[in-house]
Amino acid sequence: xxxxxxxxxxxxxxxxxxxxxxxxxxxxxxxxxxxxxxxxxxxxxxxxxxxxxxxxxxxxxxxxxxxxxxxxxxxxxxxxxxxxxxxxxxxxxxxxxxxxxxxxxxxxxxxxxxxxxxxxxxxxxxxxxxxxxxxxxxxxxxxxxxxxxxxxxx
Length: 154
Fold this sequence. Notes:
CATH topology: Rossmann fold
Distance between the termini: 57 Å
Number of helices: 5
Radius of gyration: 18 Å
Structural class: alpha/beta
Largest sheet: 4 strands, parallel
Helix content: 40-55%
CATH superfamily: Glycogen Phosphorylase B
Oligomer: single chain
Order of helices and strands: HHEHEHHEE
Shape: elongated
Low-confidence stretches: none
Strand content: 5-15%
Strand order of the largest sheet: 2-1-3-4
């Protein structure tokens, strides 16, 4: 029994062309000395998990040191963050001190659980955003917002 099939960047050449593959590999080589980590809130379900699953494999196969962390949390934590998510999209929110403390506590647990000494940290969900306050940053922290913020609750 052989190894499972994993698509390599070169397999995309018939679709994107030799020049595009070479350009990507050249850019990957320039990033090969940097460690990058992506953080989101779920391993499955939704576009972010789909994106990160493929992207981290392709990046590592191209020579970029890229990891993926998923924060952990209690049902209460994810209930609070769902309300925050809905508020970002215009929904009403009543964030009590108790709910805020649940949120802060779980964020700090994830800080202790995840050692983020990477050169670049990319956050894909609002849930782990406050983690930035607890680290000495080696490089940029980037938030890639996948939430429609065109009509937030003000």
